[in-house]
From TrEMBL:
It holds the Pfam family AAA_23. The keyword Signal does not apply. Keywords: Coiled coil. GO terms for molecular function: ATP hydrolysis activity; single-stranded DNA binding. The keyword Metal-binding does not apply. The lineage of its organism: Eukaryota, Metazoa, Ecdysozoa, Arthropoda, Hexapoda. This is Structural maintenance of chromosomes protein 5.
């Protein structure tokens, strides 16, 4: 993997997913599947987890709309490949709270 490449995406209570984990490969990755299987949800999780505004995604106007129906909190975790001199990979964690329409961020914590 190149430094900065996504090596893992984990979501919980995010749009269509109750709990899921994805491990992209080091080269070209494609997300394919029938309609309604969560392809766009995965792409939205990556975008939101890397700091994009929900308005850029064209799917929802606010982050609270990405929390799975009937749940209060959604979590996105993205692991990025470390640089050769670093000890461990970088892990970005985002917690989305429906009621507060808010996000809380962690880096390696």
């Amino acid at each position: 993997f190149q430094p900065g490449a996504i090596v893992r995406v984990s979501v919980q209570n995010f749009v269509t997913y109750e709990k899921a984990e994805f491990f992209p490969g080091p080269h070209l990755n494609m997300v394919i599947g029938p309609n309604g299987t969560g392809k766009s949800s995965l792409v939205c999780a990556i975008c939101l987890g890397l700091g994009y505004s929900p308005k850029h995604l064209g799917r929802a106007g606010s982050v609270k709309e990405f929390v799975k129906h009937g749940k209060d909190i959604a979590t996105i975790e993205i692991e990025l490949q470390k640089k050769p001199r670093d000890r461990c990979n970088y892990v970005i964690k985002v917690q989305i709270r429906r009621e507060q329409n808010s996000q809380k961020w962690w880096l390696n914590g």
